[in-house]
């Protein structure tokens, strides 16, 4: 990694996520990477989602006045982001503590032509692993963009 520590903007789009948002936020705040900007975009929730987000002073909370869709909320967050890298996290997902650090180190070590890296993910149900992501090899651009791979592109990719 370079001498300066690049800023990573994390965008969490959420709609009526009062029950799950806190875990997602805490997983971002628990990252070992030291330079993260956290943006939560509430897509017009009608539950207590806003109150959950506002409990965390580290969160830049933005709100749509009406529900549009997750893509619109992601785009709102991306437009507000000031980071060198962008990561998207669905409100019902969580990251392991070293996810951002390892991905920044990987991208920083690659040529500028590399625009993104992704990680696998596990699906937990009832307290146990239900499935584990496979790791495809080679040029993954088409598969990622068309979501042909069994991966959660939204929550595992770090973009330059």
Low-confidence stretches: none
Distance between the termini: 14 Å
Give average pLDDT, whole number.
85
Radius of gyration: 16 Å
In percent, how much strand structure appears in the residues?
A: 25-35%
Helical stretch count? Answer: 6
* CATH class division: Alpha Beta
Largest sheet, strands/sense/barrel: 6 strands, mixed
Order of helices and strands: EHEHEHEHEEEHHE
Helix content: 25-40%
Number of domains: 1
CATH superfamily: Spore Coat Polysaccharide Biosynthesis Protein SpsA, Chain A
Assembly type of the chains comes to: single chain
Structural class: alpha/beta
Spatial order of strands in the largest sheet = 3-2-1-4-8-5
Number of strands: 8
CATH architecture: Alpha-Beta Complex
**Spatial shape:** globular
Would you kindly provide a written description of the structure presented here, covering whatever features stand out?
This protein is of the alpha/beta class and 160 residues long. It has a single domain, classed as Spore Coat Polysaccharide Biosynthesis Protein SpsA, Chain A. 28% of the residues lie in helices and 25% in strands. It is built from 6 helices and 8 strands, in the order βαβαβαβαβββααβ. The chain has helices spanning 21-29, 49-54, 70-80, 99-108, 141-145, 153-156, and strands spanning 8-14, 36-43, 59-64, 85-88, 116-118, 122-125, 128-132, 157-159. The strands form 2 sheets. It has a 6-stranded mixed beta sheet with strand order 3-2-1-4-8-5, sandwiched between helices. Strands 6-7 form a two-stranded antiparallel ribbon. Strand 1, helix 1 and strand 2 (36-43) form a beta-alpha-beta unit. The longest helix is centred in the middle third of the chain and has 11 residues, at 70-80. The radius of gyration is 16 Å and the shape is globular. The mean pLDDT is 85.
């Amino acid at each position: 990694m370079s001498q300066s520590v690049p800023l990573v903007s994390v965008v969490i789009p959420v709609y009526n996520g009062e029950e799950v948002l806190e875990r997602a936020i805490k997983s971002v705040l628990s990252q070992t990477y030291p330079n993260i900007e956290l943006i939560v975009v509430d897509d017009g929730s009608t539950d207590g989602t806003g109150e959950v987000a506002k409990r965390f002073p580290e969160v830049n909370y933005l709100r749509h006045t009406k529900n549009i869709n997750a893509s619109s909320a992601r785009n709102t967050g991306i437009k507000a982001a000031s980071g060198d890298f962008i990561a998207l996290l669905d409100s019902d997902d969580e990251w392991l503590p070293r996810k951002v650090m390892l991905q920044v180190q990987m991208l920083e070590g690659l040529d500028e032509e590399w625009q993104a890296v992704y990680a696998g993910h596990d699906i937990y149900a009832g307290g146990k692993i239900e499935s584990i992501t496979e790791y495809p090899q080679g040029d993954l651009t088409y598969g990622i963009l068309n979501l042909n791979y069994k991966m959660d592109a939204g929550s595992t990719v770090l973009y330059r």
